[in-house]
Design goal:
Layout (H helix, E strand, L loop, with lengths): L9 H33 L4 H9 L5 H6 L1 H24 L9 H31 L5 H7 L13 H13 L1 H24 L1
Helix pairs in contact: 1-8, 4-5, 7-8
């Protein structure tokens, strides 16, 4: 194709996909903020119980090992589907240049490599979970460590404890802040949808 003919490139499709997903993420964050803010306004004395409940580790390994065929096939099929979609995009020749320049092109290439490696990893783990989940037991020992935010390292403790202390002392103020932030995110998502 000549330079004057505009073709839809891979990076333009990625940017379009990002602008389709971003309002949904903003709306989800806004609704979460509204819900948390309303809960802080209505039940300010329950916040200590919520924190303890959120910090209690929840183990899902037994459930996943019982239903290993379903989860393995789900991971394998999801990774394969995403790889096929990415492969089809590349094969269709979506390598046109965007006005964003070489930095944007490098960012898109890096994200493509990240997606390819991530989907291959998901397919590998899905195959292991599907065929022989006992091979993941060794990995679990190394990667399944619970990190408590209340017992954070000393260099991170001052900021986390100040914010926690403020929310515990002034839960209604924090709730009002979350509601305002949620409304702002919902308004931003709405404006992005209609822009």
């Amino acid at each position: 194709m000549g330079r004057g003919v505009r073709e839809i490139g891979y990076m333009e499709k990625m940017a379009e996909l990002l602008f389709m997903i971003l309002p949904a993420l903003l709306a989800a964050a806004g609704l979460t903020g509204l819900g948390l803010g309303a809960a802080l306004l209505m039940f300010p004395d329950q916040i200590g119980k919520w924190g303890k409940r959120l910090e209690t580790p929840f183990t899902s390994e037994r459930f996943i090992y019982r239903h290993n065929r379903f989860f393995g096939l789900f991971l394998l099929a999801g990774g394969a589907f995403a790889l096929l979609k990415i492969g089809a995009s590349i094969a269709a020749g979506y390598r046109a240049h965007l006005a964003g320049g070489p930095v944007f092109e490098s960012l898109m290439d890096a994200s493509l490599i990240f997606l390819l490696l991530g989907n291959l990893g998901a397919m590998m783990i899905g195959a292991i979970v599907w065929i022989r989940p006992s091979h993941l037991k060794g990995w679990e020992i190394h990667v399944n460590h619970w990190v408590s935010t209340r017992r954070s390292p000393p260099d991170q403790a001052p900021l986390a404890s100040r914010i926690d202390r403020h929310v515990l002392v002034f839960p209604r103020t924090a709730g009002a802040f979350f509601i305002l932030a949620g409304l702002y995110l919902l308004a931003s998502a709405t404006m992005m949808n209609f822009a």
